Amino acid sequence: AQTVTQSQPEMSVQEAETVTLSCTYDTSESDYYLFWYKQPPSRQMILVIRQEAYKQQNATENRFSVNFQKAAKSFSLKISDSQLGDAAMYFCAYRLYTGNQFYFGTGTSLTVIP
Amino acid sequence: KAGVTQTPRYLIKTRGQQVTLSCSPISGHRSVSWYQQTPGQGLQFLFEYFSETQRNKGNFPGRFSGRQFSNSRSEMNVSTLELGDSALYLCASSFAQGRNSPLHFGNGTRLTVT
Fold first, then answer.
1. Distance (Å, rounded) from C-alpha B67 to C-alpha B79?
2. Which of B99, B104, B98 is closest to B29 using CA atoms?
3. Kind of pairing, strands A108-113 and A10-14?
4. Does B56 contact A104 at a Cβ distance shorter than 8 Å?
5. Cβ(B87)–Cβ(B11) under 8 Å?
6. Given CB 3.0 to 4.6 Å as the disulfide criterion, which of A21, A40, A61, A114 pairs with A88?
7. Beta strand B109-113 pairing with B10-13
8. What confidence tens digit (pLDDT) does each residue in B67-113 have?
9. Which of B103, B104, B111 to mutate: most A Cβ within 10 Å?
């Protein structure tokens, strides 16, 4: 069974500082995809970043980057130069290489302190 | 391009009633998935439709059902509502199954069962 664990229910960061959100997953598959989604109070889930498991290079999207450790089954999200607009619930998600079912973690609520 | 549209945004129903939620995917997207989001459980996969066929189903009772029309629009139905069905129901569409196609989410329908 595929499970995704986010061990930090809440995190806070000072504006302009860097924060890392943790995510681990359990799978016996070798090919899969990993995603981070952001859900602000507006409720809409927004894709932040994605990573293909077969790629060793960590994905980056502007201020967002991941630390993908395949052997450890770890997929953390680093937010640099945090902004007030980054405040949201962040969900880590896993998807098998085939099929379209996503498995989500329970989320980390990020507060950005001005 | 218009995003994923879910209607209605809010619903209040009484236990025992039934409800139908609607989702219009992004134009060109043929896969539509439904997720139930609750504070304690996070996002739980309900089912996925692709080209009018249910491709995958999560671990929910038969009271939860759905369908997809030829224009890719989808509906989700919950019969004999229970208090525990109160949740945010999210619809997501994607271009295709497989590959690294991310899910694009709507704003959700907040269902309250009293």
1. 14
2. B104
3. parallel
4. no
5. no
6. A40
7. parallel
8. 999 999 999 999 999 999 999 999 999 987 656 678 899 999 999 99
9. B103
Do A107 and B45 count as a contact with CB atoms less than 8 A apart?
no
Identify the top-confidence range among A45-59, A92-106, B63-77: B63-77
Spatial separation of the C-alpha atoms in residues B55 and B68, rounded to whole Å = 11
CA distance B56 to chain A (A): 7
β-strands B19-24, B5-7 pairing: antiparallel
In degrees and rounded to multiples of 5, residue B60 shows phi and psi of -125, 155
CB contact under 8 A, A35 and B102: yes
How far is Cα A13 from Cα A47, in angstroms, rounded to an integer? 21
| DSSP letters for B52-90 | TEEEEE-S--TTEEEEE-TTS-EEEEE-S--GGG-EEEE
Q: What integer pLDDT is reported at residue B99 of this predicted model? A: 62
Please tell me the predicted confidence (pLDDT) of residue A57.
92
